[in-house]
Amino acid sequence: MAVRFLSASVLYLSEYILGAAKMATIHTRSVARLMMAPSVILLFAWMIVPLGMTIYFSLLRYNLLMPGTEEFTGLLNYEFFLTDPAFFDALKNTLLLVGGVLAISVIGGILMALLLDQPMFGQGIVRILVIAPFFIMPTVAALVWKNMFMNPVNGLFAWLFRLFGAQPLDWLAVAPLTSVVIIVAWQWLPFATLILLTALQSLDEEQKEAAEMDGAGPISKFIYITLPHMARAITVVVLIETIFLLSVFAEILVTTNGGPGTQSTNITYLVYTQALLQFDVGGASAGGIVAVVLANIVAIFLIRMIGKNLEA
Amino acid sequence: MGSINLRNVSKVFGEAKVIPSINLQINEGEFVVFVGPSGCGKSTLLRLIAGLEDVSDGEIVIDGQNATELPPAKRGLAMVFQSYALYPHMSVRSNIAFPLKMAGMDKGEIDRKVSDAARVLNLTDYLERKPRQLSGGQRQRVAIGRAIVRQPKAFLFDEPLSNLDAALRVNMRLEISELHQQLKTTMIYVTHDQVEAMTMADKIVVLNRGNIEQVGSPLELYCKPANLFVAGFIGSPRMNLIEGKFAEAKGAKTVGIRPEHIGLSRDSGLWEGTVTIAEHLGSDTFMHIQVQGVGTVTARASGEFWVRHGDRVYLTPDETKLYRFNEKGLAL
Ligand SMILES: Nc1ncnc2c1ncn2[C@@H]1O[C@H](COP(=O)(O)OP(=O)(O)OP(=O)(O)O)[C@@H](O)[C@H]1O
Ligand SMILES: [Mg+2]
């Protein structure tokens, strides 16, 4: 499901990124188009077939509990999905989740990158360790966080709270969405750090020295030299992470099951509950299409906002 | 404003003693050029003065004030880097304005100074462009503009022209010289280009392996090289250094004679030789001539001198322009 409704926005983004890496001349550009055609056509077919089927299903009354009763219902599925109060919660949660994780991973990533860029003992090993969370499967990561950190009885956080004489928090019940944000951010922080660190290391040494001679202190140097230099890398991080964060699922399934109520249900999870908990394929398909539209709105919005950073 | 004094300055990188110990006085308003072969420590010395590297030992005094421990920004010096080190995301205007902005100057004042600098450097039409939209020479001028707006006590240039093509290099050389006439600010200029050194400098500092071999005006170095290294380094083509019988007869270990101080003739002279290579430049002719008992001698004839590979010529060194050096390589 996730792959299906995101492929549209992936294609949109990749087209944009390729376009941004401006080819030198019209000739090389048209040759490049020709060379890319097979893979683009394949990708397009890959996307359009499932998308077409989803649109078709979304127009049917199609429930797995009542096989053989499929019939055309027009936009009824959409009406039900969009007027479901859970939909607005899910929409809000999706945006909060994406925004929260982006904020934490970009700001945290910049700080981590600055830290890792300092010469220190065992730099190589520290860098590998920092990257490590990225290699852990989402389900495993979420389970580790749920049982070892956030558990109100045995969790590390509970122990810390008690250490300071505070009442341990039942994270997943009290602040379910925040907890999910923390878990997902933990997974994506290394990715952001890695990309931003590479950007940081490509900053010309003489430029830093020139700024130093021009009287820029560490903070001015960061604001006027380092940050603009990293703008492109930050854009790449934001765009790529957004694609994946719109479809966060495993972490929610494993930890909160979308609850309590709909407090940590995002659109992906809502589609899942429709399809596999209520066996309503038609409704789920309508939800999927809504998600595709949403993903594209977010993508267009992002590219309008920060896409110019990608241009050379 | 703008005198710089190095006292026993030394620099060690790990194990390597790049600069053993240097004493140097740079006077106010002087144009000082550091020359020397690659890796001799020119850039290191400049960066020590700028404060981009810490000295291992010794003192740097700027305008009578000990600046050894001062950070680069507090020394009041401006540097132009070899790679220009412009800020790529800023317009030319913001690049030039950056040091003033960092100094907290007010907006109107900044605008006035930036447009003044732009006028001096012919950059007025390019102020809104980004550095990548400029040619090499224009970038170079922006880098200089960024340096002059601050009205520093001294300018430091590290091989600023080495990325430019030959014609532009000549142009920029003149522009920098003119700028020096105009501003009368102390300038320290690193290069390994002889011509730049000879044409621009008030004072040349010849460096070799981190040591100063000689300090003097261009003509002093040309006419009175203190040792073999300076003799071989200053002047183009290189001075001929002759050892053996000829030198012994003059009471020296080595005798030097510049290519331009050798008389050429087709029929008579002190030495007889065979031309191995002749370079015809039109204005000059440079010849490499194999002479029995002396070795290969480079000679220069003004204008056209029609010889080819294998031709026989006669050479007569100008006795009054001989340089004599002892076993230690010092001038006698
Ligand atoms: N950061 C450093 N660490 C260790 N050694 C260094 C460092 N910087 C320079 N060196 C060494 O110091 C010596 C002088 O270097 P420097 O850059 O001053 O040479 P240079 O005279 O400017 O040469 P060039 O004309 O090629 O620019 C070189 O042998 C170089 O290897
Ligand atoms: Mg150098």
Task: Supply the key terms.
heterodimer, A: mainly alpha, MetI-like fold, 2 domains, two-stranded antiparallel ribbon, 14 helices, flat, B: 332 residues, Rossmann fold, OB fold (Dihydrolipoamide Acetyltransferase, E2P), five-stranded antiparallel beta sheet, 27% helix, binds adenosine-5'-triphosphate, binds magnesium ion
How would you summarize the topology of this molecule?
The complex is a heterodimer of chains A (312) and B (332).
Chain A: H1 2-20, H2 26-58, E1 60-61, E2 71-72, H3 76-83, H4 85-117, H5 123-131, H6 138-149, H7 156-163, H8 171-174, H9 176-201, H10 205-213, H11 218-245, H12 250-255, H13 267-277, H14 281-306
Antiparallel strand pairs in A: 1-2
Helix pairs in contact in A: 1-2, 1-14, 2-14, 3-14, 4-9, 4-11, 4-13, 6-9, 9-11, 10-11, 11-14, 13-14
Chain B: E1 4-13, E2 16-26, E3 31-35, H1 42-50, E4 57-62, E5 65-66, E6 77-80, H2 92-102, H3 107-120, H4 136-148, E7 154-158, H5 166-183, E8 186-190, H6 194-200, E9 203-208, E10 211-216, H7 218-223, H8 228-233, E11 240-242, H9 245-249, E12 254-257, E13 262-265, E14 271-280, E15 284-291, E16 295-302, E17 312-317, E18 323-325
The structure holds adenosine-5'-triphosphate and magnesium ion.
Residues 13, 16, 18, 36, 38-44, 192 of chain B line the site of adenosine-5'-triphosphate.
Give your account of this protein's structure.
The complex is a heterodimer of chains A (312) and B (332). Chain A has 312 residues and is an all-alpha fold. Chain A has 2 domains: 2-58; 76-310, Orthogonal Bundle (MetI-like fold), CATH 1.10.3720. Chain A is 74% helix and 1% strand. Chain A is built from 14 helices and 2 strands. In chain A, strands 1-2 form a two-stranded antiparallel sheet. In chain A, helix 2 (26-58) packs antiparallel against helix 14 and helix 4 (85-117) crosses helix 11. The longest helix of chain A is centred in the N-terminal third of the chain and has 33 residues, at 26-58. Residues 1-8 of chain A have low confidence and may be disordered. In chain B, strand 9 (203-208) and strand 10 (211-216) form a beta hairpin. Chain B has helices at 42-50, 92-102, 107-120, 136-148, 166-183, 194-200, 218-223, 228-233, 245-249, and strands at residues 4-13, 16-26, 31-35, 57-62, 65-66, 77-80, 154-158, 186-190, 203-208, 211-216, 240-242, 254-257, 262-265, 271-280, 284-291, 295-302, 312-317, 323-325. Chain B has 332 residues and is of the alpha+beta class. The mean pLDDT of chain B is 91. The longest helix of chain B has 18 residues, at 166-183. A 6-stranded mixed sheet of chain B has the order 6-7-8-3-9-10, with helices on both faces. In chain B, strands 13-17-14-15-16 form a 5-stranded antiparallel sheet, with no helix packed on it. Chain B folds into 2 domains: 4-231, Rossmann fold (3-Layer(aba) Sandwich); 251-325, OB fold (Dihydrolipoamide Acetyltransferase, E2P), CATH 2.40.50.140. Chain B starts with a strand and ends in a 7-residue tail after the last strand. At the A-B interface, helix 10 and helix 11 of A face strand 6 and helix 2 of B. The site of magnesium ion (MG) has 2 residues of chain B, from helix 1.
